[in-house]
């Protein structure tokens, strides 16, 4: 059950990363929106890395 949850969250993060990648050509470097996009990129990549680890170790937080 938990692996399914982690995989769904991983897929949602991948979709967010794809949308962010599509928006990058339309941003001006140095603008406030560029800065927020870079911060969002870091957060999404950190989430993807954490979820990858959780999927690999098969952690189940819902088990007693």
What can you tell me about this protein's structure?
With 64 residues, the chain is an all-alpha fold. The protein has a domain at 1-29. It contains two helices and no strands. The chain has helices at residues 2-23, 32-57. α1 (2-23) runs antiparallel to α2. The mean pLDDT is 91.
Brief sketch in words of this structure:
This protein is an all-alpha fold and about 60 residues long. It has helices at about 1-25, 30-55.
Q: What is the element layout, followed by pairings?
A:
Elements: H1 2-23, H2 32-57
Spatial shape: elongated
Helix and strand pattern: HH
- Rounded to the nearest angstrom, the radius of gyration is 15 Å
Average pLDDT over all residues? 91
Distance between the termini: 13 Å
Key terms:
64 residues, elongated, single chain, mainly alpha
